[in-house]
Amino acid sequence: MKVSDVGERAIVEFARRICKSGPRVKVGIGDDAAAIDIDGKYLVATTDMLVAETHFPRGTTAAQMGLKAVVVNLSDIAAMGAEPLGLIFSVGLPRTLSVRLVKDMMREMDRVARSYGAYVVGGDLDESDEIIIAGAAFGLAKKGRLLTRSGARPGDLIAVTGELGAASAGLKILLDKIPVRGYERLVRAQLEPRARVKEGLALANSGSVTSAIDTTDSLAANAWQVSRMSRVKMVFDYEKLLIDPAVKKFSHSRGLNVDDFALFGGEDFELLFTVRPSGWKKVQRAFRRLGTAVTLIGRVSKGRGVFIRRRGEMKKLPDRGYEHFV
Fold this sequence. Notes:
The chain is α+β, with helices and mostly antiparallel strands. It has two domains: 3-142, CATH 3.30.1330.10; 157-316, Alpha-Beta Complex (Phosphoribosyl-aminoimidazole Synthetase, Chain A, domain 2), CATH 3.90.650.10. The protein is 37% helix and 27% strand. It has helices at residues 3-6, 8-18, 52-55, 62-79, 99-115, 166-175, 184-191, 197-206, 219-230, 245-254, 259-262, 280-290, and strands spanning 25-27, 34-38, 41-51, 83-93, 119-127, 132-142, 157-161, 209-214, 233-237, 271-275, 294-301, 305-310, 313-316. The strands form two sheets. A seven-stranded mixed beta sheet has the order 8-10-7-11-9-12-13. The longest helix is centred in the first third of the chain and has 18 residues, at 62-79. The protein is globular and about 55 Å long. The two termini are 13 Å apart.
């Protein structure tokens, strides 16, 4: 049996079963980040690797690589409701790469990290055939305010930040070399994503959010992860999904299925979360202060799996999204 026969999620499950957790480990393998109990607070830690051939479409600038390396790590910190502290990066570089490009990458890493209240504090450097950036981010979460994938309960409401589908539509444009004019925002969403750090903190501080995850793989795949970890059934209302208007326009103009981007496309880096009904208005008020759109898209119930209701008909939503090796 090969890695390609089982896929990324199975490998993660192997690691979760093999690696034992210590007494201070509040959250181990299988969530957006790990959490370690340190004197009444949680040290939240995550790592994410970006490989040029896999993660950076042709034409991505060095600065955009640096930006994305920071965002992918801080997005996991945001999904845990933690305040970011610092990042470290292990970087592999081809020996023929321009020093100017390396400086551009480093400057953007520093700028973006500081814009989220964090700092690049160290790392490692090695030689490689292509650009590889392995980052790790650290944050702090208050006890009782840590967000995980496993807290959703029947009766909770399901909500998501922002609009859906832009990043994966932008990737389609880049990979298929489709003219960018009119779709610059979609391409920018792919090359220059943002982490919902302030939003994650607002969710944690509300005291009403029961689970959270960032939509890295896709809305569908990440909802399935919450469903499995929380052992609940999640039901979406399709008509309530806030799909990026440019994604709809692009899909219709090219004869593409908008669901492939909105439901099954990844890298939006939005936060999908569940919240107790009594706390929904409090979350809405917090997001109005931040100027961030947040949409109620469904409800949690007893059972298992992820379903979607469209025009009165309910169907199981395929567990489909981006997955390495498959």
